[in-house]
Amino acid sequence: MAIDGPAAAGKGTIARAVAAAFGFGYLDTGLLYRAVGREVLEGAEPLAAARALTVEDLARDGLRTSDVGAAASKVAAIPEVRVALLDFQRAFARRAGGAVLDGRDIGTVICPDAEAKLFVTASDEVRALRRWQELRDAGEEITAEEVLETLRERDARDSARAAAPLKPAGDAIVLDTTALSIEAAVAAAKAHIERALASR
Ligand code: DC
Fold it and tell me: Which residue ranges have their beta carbon within 6 Å of ligand 1?
């Protein structure tokens, strides 16, 4: 299952709920880029950091901060970095029992043959508010306006890059979560996946 979309649209929440409901493995592919971005902030060279990435690196603390998110978006624009992270994602996608991957290019590049594709989106303001609440709960001192600005910068960079830009796959269903509760968004995603599985 491929779940793509811009930052803080609800992809992760939906992907986790879908994985739990259907018994699939779950990979948050943003963590790969965040782990590389974090290494780069600590002085590493992006491609070397991507090639040396291990599963343990995905469990490191501090990957969810806004600074690491911005660094992730920058390293994610480097084509060779994306290539270095491809095999790990494809191997995860093929795991027995099924898998859900969320990111920016899962339905377009990583898993073009995914059995179900969702593109999860929401208005900039609602996404910024959700992300601001998460960051504030995690102890980060940042205003909602700053979050909105960095989120727009990140989306613009993720959408404008030449390598695997953020965009819905032609066969993805678009799910706008602006006015949806978590429960309603998860229910809509599950219904789409059930339909996709039934029509196999
Ligand atoms: O989903 P996230 O906010 O944790 O992702 C962090 C950055 O990583 C995002 O701004 C762009 C990049 N990314 C990507 O280019 N491709 C993916 N499949 C996932 C994330």
Answer: 7, 29-30, 33-34, 69, 72-73, 76, 103-106, 154, 158
